[in-house]
Amino acid sequence: MTQLAADTTALVAIDLQEGILRIPLAPHTGADIVARTDRLASASESASPSSL
Predict the structure, then answer these.
(1) CA 34, CA 49: separation in Å to the nearest integer?
(2) What gap in Å lies between CA 34 and CA 13, rounded to an integer?
(3) 17-31 pLDDT tens trace
(4) Residue 41 pLDDT > 60
(5) Which of 5, 16, 27, 42 has the most CB atoms around its CB within 10 Å?
(6) How far apart are the first and last CA of the chain?
(7) Cβ atoms 11, 41 nearer than 8 A
(8) Neighbouring C-alpha atoms within 13 Å toward the C-beta of 29
(9) What is the mean pLDDT of the chain?
(10) What is the greatest pairwise CA distance in the chain?
(11) Is the whole model's pTM more than 0.70, yes or no?
(12) Which top-rank group of organisms is this from (predicted)?
């Protein structure tokens, strides 16, 4: 697994609006993308709680 430095790493989530859940996406569904992004955001916040 890749190790990232929390003090110099940013998580940027773009265009995860409600409409993504209705679009048929593959290989990951919109709900899967939102859930994965939520897990990444939680892990990022735990590692470095400063955010804008």
Answers:
(1) 20
(2) 10
(3) 777 788 888 898 888
(4) yes
(5) 16
(6) 27
(7) yes
(8) 5
(9) 80
(10) 36
(11) no
(12) Bacteria
